């Protein structure tokens, strides 16, 4: 079965993936085509990664167009067979969530304080993960600084070879 996922990585995208997977017949494979120029929700990207990695023998992904932010997160972390179409570009950066900050520069509510701690934890875990990939130190350092890091088709091929 072929599944086209495009646009923002969001709950609808995850829902489409789960529905397609659950409708597979015995011994049928799922071929995903993914483009994500808008990036999207990191928690959904993590759920997609976890879902795909649970059955990486059945699922493969072809990336095309722009694979940005959460799309690049999926690109880096999925462990299934991957292909990249020639004109594909990627971009990775840290994601941040909105929170209310007081005039003194500190989070205001209990949830905002919790979120700040979680963002710091997630950043440390992400840096540790990125160090296990084929990303260069200069790319990882730029990501640490909060910069957008762009990847050409050739560089993306290097990352999965």
CATH class of the largest domain: Alpha Beta
Query: Largest sheet, if any?
Result: 6 strands, mixed
C-alpha termini separation: 25 Å
Give the name of the CATH architecture of the largest domain.
Alpha-Beta Complex
Strand content range: 15-25%
Number of helices in the DSSP assignment: 6
Which stretches are poorly predicted, pLDDT < 50 over at least 5 residues?
none
In short:
With 161 residues, the chain is an alpha/beta fold.
Structure description:
This protein has helices at residues 11-22, 42-54, 70-77, 110-130, 137-144, 153-160; strands spanning 2-6, 30-36, 59-68, 82-84, 89-92, 149-151. The protein is α/β, with parallel strands linked by helices and 161 residues long. It has two domains: 1-92 and 147-161, 2-enoyl-CoA Hydratase, Chain A, domain 1 (Alpha-Beta Complex); 94-145, no CATH class. The protein is globular, with a radius of gyration of 17 Å. The model has no long low-confidence stretch (mean pLDDT 92).
């Amino acid at each position: 079965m072929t599944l086209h996922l495009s646009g923002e990585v969001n709950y609808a995208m995850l829902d489409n993936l789960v529905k397609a997977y659950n409708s597979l017949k015995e011994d049928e494979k799922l071929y995903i085509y993914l483009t994500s120029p808008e990036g999207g929700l990191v928690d959904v990207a993590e759920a997609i990664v976890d879902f795909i990695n649970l059955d990486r023998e059945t699922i493969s992904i072809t990336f095309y167009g722009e694979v940005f932010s959460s799309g690049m997160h999926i690109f880096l972390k999925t462990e299934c067979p991957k292909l990249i179409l020639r004109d594909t570009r990627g971009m990775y950066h840290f994601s941040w969530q909105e929170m209310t900050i007081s005039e003194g520069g500190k989070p205001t509510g209990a949830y905002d304080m919790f979120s700040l701690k979680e963002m710091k934890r997630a950043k440390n875990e992400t840096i540790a993960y990125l160090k296990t990939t084929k990303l260069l130190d200069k790319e990882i350092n730029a990501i640490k600084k909060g910069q957008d890091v762009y990847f050409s088709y050739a560089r993306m091929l290097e990352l999965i070879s």
